[in-house]
Amino acid sequence: MPEPLDLDLLPAPAPRQALPRLPRRAPRLPLLSRRIRLSLAAAAAAVLAGMLATAALPPLLARLPHLPERLPAPLQHWLAQRVAPPDWHALRLGPVLAEASRRGVLVVGVRAYARPAPPGAPAPAEPDAFDASLARQLAAHLGLRLRLVGLLGDAGNPGDPRNAPALLPGPRPDLLLAGAGAVPAAPAAARVPTAYTGGMGQVLVLRKSAYRHPADLARRSVCVAQGSPYAHTLAARYGALPRTYASAIRAVSAFLAGECDGLADDTLALARLARLPEWRFYRALDGAVAPDNGAAQIVLRAGDPLSAAYVERAVRYWKSGGALAQARERRAADLAFEAGQLQDGLVCHN
């Protein structure tokens, strides 16, 4: 092993003539890194687009039914232009949908709640527009008229039997579209496997709070809407305490009133809220919240594998054909409009 050099014994370096100073230039490494990242992202998008453009598209979507809503918006639009709808008339109907076809009307239970209204003029419960959009598309595939029956839910904690959703008076629904955790227990044969809500979620908190990641909300309350696909993830993965409200706008109102430490919803919806001037006091936590795609979100009134398979095909086309993306955008715009009315004092909650 060589001995270490003794710096005191080294000859002094010869004096060198000072060079003129050149103006300092910004390092190019960060710019290069950014270019590399953009190139890699473009290459990944091109590879994915190539995969989707081949015959591998149907098997890929069959294995990954939630892929469409995870793609960037341009790729979602690209995909929607290339996915052919099924031949709806060629698909077999089970007893539940066959009965609806005979009477000419599809009855669907959806979430329902009162919208913000002027003080002293309470509004009646109305169907959730997001749920109704899928119900309309399903009825159109079947060539049937649509009747919606409201599914009411009260504020409370998930799993509390006192807050179980109840149907408004009306005909017996052929199926329920009520989001994760809002549909009653049903046999596996009556459930539709693919979730229809989709989309990654986020959590908003006060800008000056110490929370940085959803994991920081362990044992902290988070406002969510009835049927929120993020409630289970927040509780099971991060140890948060979801507080369920009858609608997204009521969850927003409760969060603004300080009833919860955070507000969880679709990233698109929270992004629209963040654009409002009054929301400059809030910020999104780092890290997305994955939706619970394993819980039953659609349930038929009876065990019927054929009808469940038909609805399953409709939900998958709802995702890949672009209708889900449009419904998410409309929901985000509606929520931002209602939140703006609340904060302007033009309306209140009943």
From TrEMBL:
<protein>
    <recommendedName>
        <fullName>ABC transporter substrate-binding protein</fullName>
    </recommendedName>
</protein>
